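Whiteboard transcription, Tuesday session. T.W. wrote the structure tokens on the left side:
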């Protein structure tokens, strides 16, 4: 078996739908630690040049980057894997205390079809962690719902000022096979 993700054959290009919503909401910065679950979206961001792609060494840098973007008058998104949420817990207090409109899209691990037991603890508590930090959570489990859930998340953040995490289920993105 290869170590690549098994992406369900859906006939829908949901990463492009996410990109279109980000573009429509004027997002100008996308921060990420390279990740297979976000690979198509990251490639789209890098190829178009419409949203600045910023590679991080750790996910918590993305929380600080989002705060700085907002203070500087730009909109941003943080793309990360569920295991990276654990790295951000302390930094999420910045979002909470300063009431920063924050959008993150999380590729889930530790769920459907997971073969790496190290991914399960954070994957099973990701939603709880966000909710404890007053970040609202929306979830997409199937390709047909990605666009509407993404639109709702962007509206909550950029129109309503509510920090929001969009969780992309492992069933949606595909389970890794290594």
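and on the right, the sequence the group agreed on:
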């Amino acid at each position: 078996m290869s170590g690549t993700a098994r992406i369900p054959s859906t006939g829908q290009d949901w990463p492009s739908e996410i990109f279109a919503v980000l573009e429509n909401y004027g997002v100008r910065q996308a921060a990420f630690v390279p990740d297979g679950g976000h690979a198509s979206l990251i490639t789209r961001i890098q190829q178009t040049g419409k949203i600045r792609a910023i590679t991080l060494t750790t996910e918590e840098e993305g929380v600080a980057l989002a705060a700085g973007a907002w203070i500087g008058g730009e909109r941003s998104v943080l793309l990360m894997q569920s295991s990276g949420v654990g790295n951000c817990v302390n930094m999420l207090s910045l979002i909470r205390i300063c009431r920063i409109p924050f959008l993150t899209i999380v590729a889930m691990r530790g769920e459907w079809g997971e073969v790496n037991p190290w991914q399960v603890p954070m994957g099973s508590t990701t939603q709880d962690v966000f909710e404890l930090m007053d970040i609202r959570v929306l979830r997409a489990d199937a390709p047909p719902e990605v666009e509407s859930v993404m639109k709702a998340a962007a509206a909550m953040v950029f129109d309503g000022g509510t920090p929001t995490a969009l969780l992309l289920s492992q069933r949606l993105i595909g389970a890794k096979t290594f």
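Someone added at the bottom: The first strand starts at residue 27 and ends at 32.
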